[in-house]
């Protein structure tokens, strides 16, 4: 049987799950975690579509899909690291932030 096939398999972003969770491996712009579906097109008309198995990263700029595991993490805005635990000014040991006095040296926090 001769089967002349014009078309192809395309991946399309179906739904954005999380936006800006990674960076594009190609252009470095923010990439979204998306649910995608595969669309089989024949003569440029979608004839069949089925959902992708795993969410993928999708770059809107270069329309690239790639697995989340190889996506570099997004550049996080520099935040002052807020330490959960307080340190005593005198003995510099870690003290629970709810304590009013250092349990090690007794100085006020
Ligand atoms: Zn890109
Ligand atoms: Zn102390």
From TrEMBL:
- The record places domain Zinc-ribbon at 23-106
InterPro entries from the entry? Double_zinc_ribbon (IPR053281), Zinc_ribbon_15 (IPR031493)
| PANTHER family xrefs | DOUBLE ZINC RIBBON PROTEIN MJ0416, OS05G0435400 PROTEIN
Name of the protein this chain belongs to: Zinc-ribbon 15 domain-containing protein
Q: Which organism is it from?
A: Salvia splendens
Q: What is the lineage of its organism?
A: Eukaryota, Viridiplantae, Streptophyta, Embryophyta, Tracheophyta
């Amino acid at each position: 049987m001769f089967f002349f096939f014009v078309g192809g398999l395309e991946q399309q972003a179906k739904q954005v799950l999380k936006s800006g969770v990674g960076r594009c491996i190609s252009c470095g712009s923010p990439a979204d975690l998306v649910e995608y579906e595969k669309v089989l097109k024949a003569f440029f008309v979608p004839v069949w579509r089925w959902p992708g198995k795993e969410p993928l990263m999708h770059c809107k700029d270069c329309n690239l899909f790639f697995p989340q595991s190889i996506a570099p993490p997004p550049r996080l805005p520099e935040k002052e690291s807020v330490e959960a635990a307080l340190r005593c000014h005198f003995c510099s040991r870690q003290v629970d932030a709810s304590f009013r006095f250092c349990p090690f040296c007794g100085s006020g926090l």
